[in-house]
Specification:
The protein is an alpha/beta fold. It folds into two domains: 48-220 and 314-322, 3-Layer(aba) Sandwich (Rossmann fold); 233-309. Helix content is 32%, strand content 21%. It is globular. It starts with 15 loop residues before the first helix and ends with a helix.
Length: 326
């Protein structure tokens, strides 16, 4: 789903549509507040760290989960990840096994995350946490679920796209937020904004007044895997939160974008679409390229035809978060 343009008008100058939808946004915020008031939820015997967001849509939670899992593993912690398994058909709780599970069963993000740490899917998040606990986890990373009260969080890291920020500061459908900025940040332990220096400067200028918790900054950078993208003719396709950022990263690496195809987040790949992409690549002499998350959804017969641009989160200064980690 593409976010409406009016969501990202300046907070102090909301677009007409945002003003008209404001009453519905207040109702959405009230519903979120009522859900959160149901109780503290299941309290695990081990630390539970939630990686969440205030915005609807992609903000960089998956690369953040990978980076945080690796940070904790370097401390000697047995880290398990619990995810709802968005887009998957299996309800769980179930430990993801990439050798026998597909993205259609588990969701693309859990399948990707399972390469870095034991990963569980469960529509009932509390049941997923219990399963990870019983399997020997020493720390649990809760992938999303910041607005879900079924599990007590010992620490919550809110992730935001620095370029988009919190949009116009309004809740759905008047804006991009699941809950008001002040309300959400009051429950968070730290904030991580992801973007280049220009985006970080804009984010700080717009939102610093609302931030009263440790604020970390970071950037997604291509992982050097021996591929020289300079001058490479590519057809890039992606079904992630903000495909345009993926296309911009490829261009920044020197690739020549013959065509780009932006799909909805988690959109399944129909065989007809893939065959059209393959034909177009052959006739135009271009290489097909996608994201790591999208590659997890590709069928086995198509996967060898596509290159993957892998990115990893680089945090500018971990020290504020290190002090909060178990």
């Amino acid at each position: 789903m593409r976010a409406p343009g009016f969501w990202f008008s300046p907070p102090d100058r909301p677009a007409l549509m945002a003003r008209l939808l404001a009453p519905l946004g207040r109702l959405y915020a009230a519903a979120t507040a009522r859900r959160l008031a149901r109780g503290p939820g299941y309290r695990a015997r081990i630390p539970v760290i939630c990686i969440g967001n205030l915005n609807s849509g992609g903000t960089g939670k998956t690369p953040t989960a990978i980076a945080l899992a690796q940070r904790l593993q370097a401390r000697g912690k047995a880290v398990h990840i619990v995810s709802r398994g968005h887009g998957g058909t299996l309800p769980g709780p179930l430990r993801v096994d990439p050798a026998r599970h597909s993205a259609a069963q588990t969701g693309d993000e859990p399948l990707l995350l399972s390469a870095f740490a034991p990963t569980w899917i469960s529509r009932d998040r509390a049941a997923g946490v219990r399963a990870a606990e019983a399997a020997g986890a020493e720390v649990i990373l809760l992938d999303d679920g910041f607005q879900n009260p079924s599990v007590h969080k010992d620490m919550s890291l809110v992730v935001v796209d620095a370029e988009r920020g919190f949009g116009n500061g309004r809740c759905l459908p008047a804006g991009p937020l699941r809950e008001p900025v002040a309300t959400g940040l009051a429950r968070a332990s730290a904030l991580l904004s992801i973007g280049n220096p220009q985006a970080q400067s804009l984010f700080s200028a717009t939102w610093d007044h609302a931030i009263r918790i440790p604020h970390l900054t970071g950037q997604l950078r291509p992982l050097q895997m021996g591929m020289d993208w300079q001058g490479e003719r590519v057809i890039a396709f992606a079904g992630i939160g903000h495909p345009e950022k993926f296309f911009a990263t490829l261009k920044g690496e020197g690739a020549v974008l013959v065509r780009t195809l932006a799909l909805s987040d988690h959109e399944p790949f129909a065989d007809a679409l893939l065959r059209r992409l393959e034909h177009e690549a052959q006739t135009s002499g271009a290489q097909l390229v996608t994201t790591e998350k999208d590659a997890a959804r590709l069928p086995a017969w198509f996967r060898p035809k596509v290159l993957v641009l892998v990115v990893r989160l680089e945090v500018d200064d971990w020290s504020a978060l290190d002090r909060l980690l178990p």
